Amino acid sequence: MSNSMQSVQSVEITERHHDQRLDNFLMGQLKGLPKSLVYKLLRSGQVRVNKGRKKPEYRLQTGDVVRIPPISRQDKQDDDVAPKFLLEQLRQSILFEDEQLLAINKPVGLAVHGG
Q1: Rounded to an integer, what distance in angstroms lies between the CA atom of residue 43 and that of residue 54?
Q2: Per 3-state DSSP, what percentage of the chain is helix, strand, and coil (rounded to 5)?
Q3: Domain assignment present for 2
Q4: SS3 for 29?
Q5: What span, in angstroms and rounded, lies between the C-alpha atoms of 24 and 19?
Q6: What is the tally of structural domains in the chain?
Q7: Closest CA to 36 of 23, 53, 47
Q8: Strand-pair partners of 65
Q9: Is this model's pTM higher than 0.85 or not?
Q10: Is 1 part of any domain?
């Protein structure tokens, strides 16, 4: 899926998706979108089934028409970029650097290991 859908999509449910939960169907249609955003679209009523609101656990029936609204989101790369002031602060904290070692003067309490 691209980073944005510019128009409303109407998807008619076929036998293939009969009895599938609405939330699971949307996860398949909107690959790469966080689950939280899919549930937000359902809660806010932006996703409709047969012109009405449905709960995430609704079981789709053959012939249902699912309305999927236009969705725009930032590139994942944009989310991974740190603010410039933070990068500059990090550069100023470097005490020593060579090809095998990087020593940084970090604040007390800042975790250095994931988990």
Answers
A1: 9
A2: 30, 20, 50
A3: no
A4: helix
A5: 11
A6: 1
A7: 23
A8: 12
A9: no
A10: no
For every residue of 76-111, DSSP letters joined together read HHHHHPPPHHHHHHHHHTEEEE-SS-EEE-PPTT--
CATH of the domain at 19: 3.10.290.10
The C-alpha torsion from 36 through 40 and 43 to 45, rounded to 10°, is -140
CB atoms under 10 Å from CB of 97, counted, come to 10
Distance, in Å, from the CA atom of 49 to the CA atom of 84, rounded to the nearest integer, reads 44
* Enclosing domain of residue 21: 9-73
Q: Decide: 9 and 46 in contact? Cβ < 8 Å.
A: no
Token reading at 85: 């002031």
pLDDT digits (tens, 9 = 90+) for 39-75: 999 999 999 999 999 999 999 999 999 999 998 764 3
> Cβ distance 78 to 84 under 8 Å?
no
Judged by DSSP in three states, 61 sits in coil
